[in-house]
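User: Thanks for the earlier help. One more: Basic leucine zipper/W2 domain protein. Can you show the sequence and predicted structure together?

Assistant: Of course, both are below.
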Amino acid sequence: MGREKSPGLKILWVWTIGTAAILVTSVVRTRMQDMQTMMNQNQEQAPKENQNGSAGDSSVLMDETVLPESDREIAEKL
């Protein structure tokens, strides 16, 4: 008889677990949207950087680091 729980307690547990599931889903959805937005911004910036680089920009891109013209000789030696 000690193992039987009242219906109110069962409803409370269902309510608590349901609320936690909704909150976790909301946080995951928000983070996924933020990550998608960040990836879209990176993809939009990449073509712009390529267009700027081919337009005669005076910098060298090595290992994803933009070097000024004065460091070009040092970078080519490496």
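User: Great, one quick takeaway?

Assistant: The beta strands are 59-62, 65-68.
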